[in-house]
Sequence to fold (323 residues):
Amino acid sequence: MTSRRDFLKKSTLAVSILPFLKPTKVFPKSISKSVKPVVISTWHFGVPANDEAWKVLSTGGRALDAVEAGVQIPEGDPKVNSVGYGGLPDREGRVTLDSCIMDENANCGSVAFLENIMHPVCVARKVMESTKHIMLVGSGAQKFAVENGFKKENLLTPESKKAWLNWLKNSNFTPDPNLLHDTIGMLALDINGNLSGACTTSGLGYKIHGRVGDSPIIGAGLFVDNEVGAATATGTGEEVIRVSGSHTVVEYMRQGYSPMDACKETIKRVKAKMKSKEAETQVAFLALNKEGTFGAYALINGFKYAVYSPEENNTLKKSDYLN
Ligand code: ASP
Fold:
């Protein structure tokens, strides 16, 4: 029989070796009740995007269809100058778009450096569903889109052209002008408990022609693992790519971190590896797990995200931040 003293001795030993067995801090899995359906998305334009996604989710539709429908709203809105139509051009005056989509079965599709197509997310889905590839870029992506019935359109609005002409006067590109970019990343959990995500952007305003950020890169701008959760990113893509941001968030959730803590740990990693010296450099992550728990975390103040669920009436929330 184990005496009380032996027991105490053994348990003290167990406690003292535990940190060596588990080098990573692990939180207990959340035991919150499951909420579904849920849709979350980045920035203020996430609100109308969520409304569209909710039409699909609230009628029993699939998360994949919801995110594709949702992100098309800012893609088609000329007033959103960081996504799709009306997006700020690169320094040559050309609007080039990046987008990706991922479903509950690890199917994914992506397009990058795509010009003259209003809804790159739909082209990304077409790549996912009708080719053996994941990513198409530039003129190849455009050729594929046109062959599949997408219309070529001018995406440079008079407002964005004016802003670009004004910028040309000094041509001063600070890599991280905080107001010249913002992506819509959207994550959804449907009534059947399946997760999907989509991400779409015109990238950094006045970037070098040909520059591609994190948004169309599976694992950087977006990642979905139906066993665990999903994550998406916004902000300076170069800093997100450096740490495989969205994949890292999902891996933290796999270890048992809550969505918010998973985003926070990844933001700490971004900060540790960061090359940008600009104080206004923003990076933010948004995450949703299998139970419908969501969370976000940003590097600096200012990141907002929208949440629609049976418990949240499409509310815009302020994210916590590190600096
Ligand atoms: N992540 C995007 C990019 O680097 C921009 C943003 O979300 O602000 O292209």
Notes: Residues 4-21 form the longest helix (18 residues). The radius of gyration is 21 Å.
